[in-house]
Fold this sequence. Notes:
By secondary structure, the protein is α/β, with parallel strands linked by helices. It has helices at 3-10, 29-37, 94-107, 137-147, 166-171, 195-208, 235-241, 253-257, 267-279, 286-314, 338-350, 373-389, 404-414, 424-436, 440-461, 466-482, 488-493, 495-504, 512-517, 539-546, 553-574, 579-591, 595-603; strands at residues 49-51, 54-60, 67-71, 81-82, 88-91, 125-129, 151-157, 176-179, 184-187, 218-226, 247-251, 324-328, 357-359, 393-396, 418-422. It is 47% helix and 12% strand. The strands form 3 sheets. An 8-stranded parallel beta barrel has the order 6-7-10-11-12-13-14-15, surrounded by 6 helices. Strands 1-2-3-5-4 form a 5-stranded antiparallel sheet, sandwiched between helices. A two-stranded antiparallel ribbon has the order 8-9.
Amino acid sequence: MDExxxxxLANGHTIATNxxxxxxxxxxxxxxxxxxxxxxxxGNPLSRVxxxxxxxxxxxxxxxxxxxxxxxxxxxxxxxxxxxxxxRAWPATWENLLRLKDLMLESDPxxxxxxxxxxxxxxxxxxxxxxxxxxxxxxxxxxxxxxxLPLVANQNSIPRELVWDIxxxxxxxxxxxxxxxxxxxxxxxxxxxxxxxxxxxxxxSKLRTGFHRRRIPWGFNADHQPVGGxxxxxxxxxASGCCLASxxxxxxxxxxxxPSWCPPIPGTxxxxxxxxxxxxxxxxxxxxxDAELDRLWGAMLKMQxxxxxxxxxxxxxxxxxxxxxxxxxxxxxxxxxPATLAVALALCEALDVRADYVAPAFGFQKNFPFDDQIELxxxxxxxxxxxxxxxxxxxxxxxxxxxxxxxxxxxxxTGGNLEIKTxxxxxxxxxxxxxxxxxxxxxxxxxxWWAFTRDLxxxxxxxxxxxxxxMARSFIAxxxxxxxxxxxxxxxxxxxxxxxxxxxxxxxxxxxxxxxYNFLFVLAAGGKAxxxxxxxxxxxxxxxxxxxxxxxxxxxxxxxxxxxxxxxFLAETTGLAPAERCSEARRVLDATGTWDGFLAxxxx
Length: 604
């Protein structure tokens, strides 16, 4: 038991009540092995897989969440305990999980226990973000099972959302991420779980529910991997923590926003880019080409170096080394010009880091439709003309909450060669599930969550700097206008009237104030809307996070059905799944009335 495991247990946090913080999925091996020996914990038949010479099952203690591997053969895993009937057991540690990847794939090359690039994921998918808890996984597995559709079933921004290094977390030395809309910074990993713990748990979930028996590939996207700046010094460790990711999103914005010195571009590379860009129907003048190259070259060199780090991290595996590359240029100011897109993709080819996806900026806002279909068509068609010529799919970031017309349009233009990334939507659906729950404890959590976002919006609107005040007032005005408040913008700008109007505003998950600020509640110490409380990796922060795992079974079912329903909607409107299949999945979902029944439908 290491220091973090001792600290978690001392503060009342088990894997069952607050998972994915520690990279291991077993905090107390001595206790679990004793319960295994006493036959108080046994293997899960749904989880059985083949390994060299025998079989392997997952065993989990329902009370603590601690997990172990049980097999009828010896395996090269750590910390073996021999049980009766010639069975062997090992703790579900991060290191043991990594060792099992090769063992499973050697025995069964078609195994879908671990994330992979199979099933067409390098061309099309839906990216399902795990922004704040692990509770959505059964819903994603259910939707994939019913639709027979491979998806990127786990997606996170690292290190912005996930803790990239638990030693840094324990030492209190995680870097801070600026959030201009709150006028301050929040520590990295502001959702609390570690990248290794999240990776580990996603794999175990597929075994626990028996989803792996469906033989449907699934992916894990290490999203928004920042390239440049302070991340240069830690890129080896960032890559190591993401070694199970089957797709990597290279985010060039740190280097593009604050470029460092780089060597001049070789003439051969410049010539190759010029020829390639002209060949796709976009010849550029020397001045225009050099302007794009001057802007992109240094960042692309650093992306190449980061790609080498990812290849090195995955070299420990003999099987399943392949991964999908996505180039992210969507977080820069303004829209992405076709010329920028073409030069960036040509540089990817020249540097031998060919992109499978690219994410341009289309002007999307999270969870809001794009109102102008004609303009959206113009922007996407211009980008697709470039991407198609490079054999590259489009990643639509901030893809939550668009209209069915928006999704049908982008699916039609790209011929389904796209990925719609959705993260904030699943936090929103959790709020909707709590708001609709009849359980007092769920309603209490919802009430506190709503109050937190209200108070944070008011603090930013009247008490912060100009930038966050402007954004907060726009969020407040939108929320008030939805309820019929006249002259909502003027009310939002007047502090006494604003406070009175917000106090009278009904708790509503569709209010923009709740949607924009809700993710910061998960690790807010004491649930307080104060700068110092946000992203707290101490006892108070993790006590707050544990509240989400204490929700009722009915709330879990309500949440899962909402998530699954949204995935079905996306799959149908983008054309990734046939309408008939989506209709049947929706019928089954509507008829599901119990949590156990929902879980039973995953394995089939």
